[in-house]
Amino acid sequence: MAAAGRREWRLCSATLAEQRPGEQPRYPCGPLTGTGKHQLLVSPGACACGHRSFVSGGIAQLGVLQVWEGRWRVIPYDVLPDWLKDNDYLLHGHRPPMPSFRACFKSIFRIHTETGNIWTHLLGFVLFLCLGILTMLRPNMYFMAPLQEKVVFGMFFLGAVLCLSFSWLFHTVYCHSEKVSRTFSKLDYSGIALLIMGSFVPWLYYSFYCSPQPRLIYLSIVCVLGISAIIVAQWDRFATPKHRQTRAGRRSPSSPRVPSPGRGFVKATTVGQMGWFFLMAVMYITGAGLYAARIPERFFPGKFDIWFQSHQIFHVLVVAAAFVHFYGVSNLQEFRYGLEGGCTDDSLL
Ligand SMILES: [Zn+2]
């Protein structure tokens, strides 16, 4: 965090563990009080014991931050500020509000309720970044129309990489402040729309290889739906826990994924890898369903605070589904390559 201007930081030296039994939960100790850019997070009297306060600027302030960053402890759900309260079945292990990006990023390496959410999509991001680079570097001899096909695959990888990076970034800085959390949650939801849009591009490109008109129509529909979804995600109230079901619904692609009905559809099932796309849809829907219903933590509150909570399962299923999609699309690409890009009546999907 930038040490802009003169700011007063207060450091609470107490921890919740020092709180006397029967006492009202006080504001967790550890977070900073800042006058200046940040709102007051801890009032001096809110600490369970005496606080030390620092008046600092410039280098001195950095010193304070360093002391503070190593000191925060995970806190229970009850004492979280409202804007950090999302899933009341996760009883303990939450990060306190930490208005420092540095502290947020350092928390990637600590164990708390968001650790699994961060790592599932951070590793997914690395996976798709590598896959994308490998695909782009693939010799042109493996493509019928190298430039076009690489752009088409590039759209998919761009969607996947943006979606996964927005997601792990959101989970990392979620505890920074209300404003930062709101901004990044909008990016997170927009990322899902980008992934869905990007996924459609190569799938439509190869599935409707010989029918440019329906391909264009479907692609336009997907773009309109995707852009509308991104616009809806900018709506502030959308990110509140009340809209969990709506958000989960949006995350399972329900747009027309079925190619032209009749003969084409049967062919698509065999040659067009519909089986893989079906598996992908099942994964998305399962993930979104678990996320909306908050299963398994709903049945065992407090038992999945750190690992195997619904959001992590959902994250893993998103990465797996995107991978299955890539596999299916690669098979389609090989199929077109096998036909040498030709359009006989037989290959018309
Ligand atoms: Zn997430």
Automatic annotation (TrEMBL):
Give the matching Pfam families.
Answer: HlyIII (PF03006)
Q: According to Swiss-Prot or TrEMBL, what is its membrane topology?
A: Multi-pass membrane protein
Regions of biased composition (Low complexity) lie at: 251-263
* GO CC terms: plasma membrane
Sequence segments annotated as region (Disordered): 243-263
Q: What is its main location?
A: membrane
Please identify the protein, giving its name as recorded: Adiponectin receptor 1
Q: Where in the cell is it found?
A: Membrane
